[in-house]
Amino acid sequence: MLLTVVVVVSTASADQFGDFTYEINSPDTNTVTIIDYTGAGGAVVIPSIIEDKSVTSIGNTAFNACSGLTSIEIPDSVITIGDFAFYSCSGLTNVMVGSNVTSIGSYAFQACTNLTSVTIGSGVASIGESAFSLCTSLTSITIPDSVTTIGQSAFSDCTGLTSATIGNGVTSIDDYAFQACTNLTSVLVGSNVTSIGESAFSLCSGLTSIEIPDSVTAIGSSAFYSCTSLTTVTIGNGVTTIGSDVFESCTNLTNVTLGNGVTTIEGGAFSGSSLTSITIPDSVITIGDSAFYSCSGLTNVLVGSSVTSIGSYAFQACTSLTSIEVPDSVTTIGQSAFSDCTGLTSATIGNGVTSIDDYAFQACTN
Question: Are 38 and 21 in contact (CB under 8 A)?
C-alpha cells in the first residue's frame, strides 16, 4: 500500500548542526530529535551527541524522499525512528539500526526500492505499519527476538524477499504483513506467535511449505490465499479456528495436517486446493460453507466424530471423491454440500442428521 503524504514541519525552535536540523526535547531530558536532513546524501552516520545532548529520536519525515542517501547508520543513542522517517529514499541500499532503538515507525522505510540490507537492532520491540513495504530489492530479513509485534503491511510487496526469520519474541503477525512477497520461499515462524493476521502471507506465490507452531491460536482470513506454490502445511495443536479462505486457491496444496485443537474450519478455507485426502480431527465441530469447494483431487475424507454441521457447498465439485461417511454427531448437511461430486458412488448418513438441505447431493451422477 503506497501512501503519499504532504507534511509541513515547523522549525520555529529548530537549530542546525552540520547537515542535521534538530530540536531540543523537554529541557530536563538533555536529549534532541533530528527533524530534517539538509545534506547531499551518500553514506550518512547519524551523530549520537549534538551540543552535549544525546540524539534519542529521528523525527517524522526527517529524511523523507532523500534520493541521494545510499546508507544510514543509526547510533545506539536513538530510541525511536519516526513515521515516514526515510520514506521513499530511493537510493538507500543499507540500513543499520542501533541496539537501543525500540520502535520503527509506520512507513519509516516504505518504498526504499534499492534497499538490499537491513540490520534490525536487538532492542526493537515493534515494527510499524508498512515500515518496509515496497522495498522491492530486500532479499532477506531476520527479525530479532526483541520484537513482539510486526505491524500491518510491514513487509508487503517486498517482491525480492526470499526468506524471513521471525524471532521467538513475536506474538503477533498483523494483517497483510508479508502480502505479495512473490519470491518468498522460506518462512520460519517463531515459537511464541499467537496470531497470524488477515492476508498476512496472501499472494506469496513462491512459498512452498509452512509450519504453524502450537503457540498460534488463530489464523486470520485469507492468511495464505493464492500461495500457488504451497504444497505442504502443518497446523499446530494450538489453533482453534482456521479462518475463512485461509488457503483458498493454493492450487498446488496437496498435504495438510490439522492440529487436534481445531474446532472450526470456516468458509472457503481450502477451496480450490489440490488436496488428495483430509483427516478432520475429532475436535472439529463446524465445517463452514465452501470449506473444500472444488477440491477436484480429493479422494478421501475422514470426518471427525464431533462435527455437528457441514456447511453449504462444503464439498461441492469434489469430483474425485468416491465415498463419504457422515458421523452420527452431524445434525445438518447444508445446501449443495456434496453437489456435483460426480465420482461419488456411496454415502452413509449418520443417525443424528435431521436436515439434508436443498441440492445436497444434486448431480452426483454416479
Answer: yes
Report the distance separating Cα 90 and Cα 266, nearest Å: 42
Q: What is the pTM of this model?
A: 0.91
How many helices (H) does the chain have, and how many strands (E)?
A: 0, 32
Strands 80-81, 309-310: pairing is unpaired
27 backbone dihedrals φ, ψ, rounded to 5°:
-50, -35
The DSSP code sequence of 340-359 is T-TT--EEEE-TT--EE-TT
Secondary structure class of 55 (helix, strand, coil): strand
Q: Over the stretch 55-78, which tens digit does the pLDDT of each residue have?
A: 999 999 999 999 999 999 999 999
Quickly list H helices, the chain.
none
One-character DSSP codes across 355-366: EE-TTTTTT---
Dihedral, CA atoms, 159, 161, 162, 168, nearest 10 degrees? Answer: -140
Residues 119 and 110: their CA atoms lie apart, in Å, by 16
Residues facing 234 on adjacent strands = 211, 257
**Whole-angstrom distance, CA of residue 191 vs CA of residue 238:** 11
Three-state DSSP class for residue 293: coil
Cα–Cα nearest to 326, from 351, 348, 300: 348
CA 283 to chain centre: 26
Dig out the grid coordinates for 108 from the structure.
Answer: 519509516
Q: How confident is the model at residue 28 (pLDDT cuts 50, 70, 90)?
A: confident
3-state helix, strand, coil in the chain (%, to 5): 0, 25, 70
In the structure grid, which three cell numbers stand for residue 276, read together?
488428495
Q: Tens digit of pLDDT for each residue in 280-307?
A: 999 999 999 999 999 999 999 999 999 9
Element (H, E) at 294: none
Kindly state the helix (H) or strand (E) to which residue 72 belongs, with its residue range. Answer: strand 69-73
Q: How far apart are CA 273 and CA 282, in angstroms?
A: 22
